[in-house]
Amino acid sequence: MQIPFEIALGWRYTRAGRAMRRNGFISFISGASMLGIALGVAALIIVLSVMNGFQKEVRDRMLSVVSHIEIFAPNGQAMQDVAGAMAQARQHPEVVGAAPFVAAQALLARGDDMKGVLVRGIDPAHEGEVTDLAATNGAVLQHLQPGSFAIVLGVELARSLGVAEGDTVTLIAPSGQVTPAGVVPRMKQMQVAGLFDSGHYEYDANMVMLHYQDAQKIFRLEGPTGVRLKLRDLHQAPRVAQELAGQLQEFLYLRDWTQQNKTWFAAVQVEKRMMFIILTLIVAVAAFNLVSTLVMTVQDKRSDIAILRTLGASPASIMGVFVVQGAMVGVLGTLAGLALGLLVACNIDVIVPAIEQALGASFLPKDIYIISRMPSEPLASDIVPIAVIALILAFVATLYPSWRASRVNPAEALRYE
């Protein structure tokens, strides 16, 4: 099959600039445009992959404490039929685990130090079905036995109160007990059975855990306040929650993990969009450098254009020659950027430590950030739009110079030849 002469000639012009000394400056600008597109595309892929990696790391650590879906009664009351709700939820094909829990707020006191905490009553035997916390802190959670009134604290909370394993703390319930002397807050002396570390500062600094039956007694509840569920696919949580809402017989509320941290996830998405827009402008600047490259090429090839026109080439064919030339630069730059970006994004766990060792610095100090390594997760949903946008910008940049080439008058171009 014979290649159209527009493509063949456009490719020849793309290569000729590097071979001919008098076109060296044009070739330099063309190479700079190609390099700019490649670096812009690579920067977009690397930055978005790192942001995806951070989001995944934080999400996974968050889900080590937070379940995929929570079913709970209104106003923090006890559920009427916990076993029935768990049985109905387990019938859904996406649900792989269910466990009862008690959620409440209280004050935790140690001497003169006092802090508001989120109290979570759990069933240690079933906690591993709904969160990953039991996998890393299972031995500690097994100390929570009904009637022992033992408590497990987050490591950051224990550090702020100066508490260690074996110490005694006082849990103060918000609703007081009515006595002849007035309302007296309910207090319970509890022994610290251990500390848990979820890797997420917000929960490690504000959460305590105890057996759900002990929590029921302290807060005077007739049963657990809710049920926690784990799904096969965490991304299906909103859909599954909506389906379960129509299946449960008792009037209950459902909340999935995206709703519990909606503000944080929305902020991450805004940051990703802004970074995408900012770095796309870099690709746009590099792509529109093709305009100057093609304008000088057209000026240099005026006599060639005139000869082609006299041989019968149409204005559309002339325009196609220079569109091909500019598009080739855009395609090569985009492909190079994709290769470089994916190479760095897929090996960032090796590249960043090497740079840190060479510079003697740490980009993510362990005592400041909850993540001590640079994560990366390249996604096709980010990479494909980046490549498409880079190609479109490169193509659009070729239109005006190519149109001016098609408007060259052969007689004027050959007058002084």
UniProtKB/TrEMBL annotation:
Query: Which controlled-vocabulary keywords does the entry list?
Result: Cell membrane, Lipoprotein, Membrane, Transmembrane, Transmembrane helix, Transport
According to the entry, every stretch annotated as the MacB-like periplasmic core domain falls at 31-245
Superkingdom of origin: Bacteria
What family, per the record? Belongs to the ABC-4 integral membrane protein family. LolC/E subfamily.
Species this chain originates from: Comamonas nitrativorans
- Say if the entry is tagged with keyword Membrane: yes
Its annotated compartments are:
Cell membrane
Q: What is this protein called?
A: Lipoprotein-releasing ABC transporter permease subunit
Task: Show the stretches that span the lipid bilayer.
Answer: 25-51, 276-299, 383-400
Entry's InterPro entries?
ABC3_permease_C, Lipoprotein-release_system, LolCE_TM, MacB_PCD
Q: Keyword Transmembrane on this protein?
A: yes
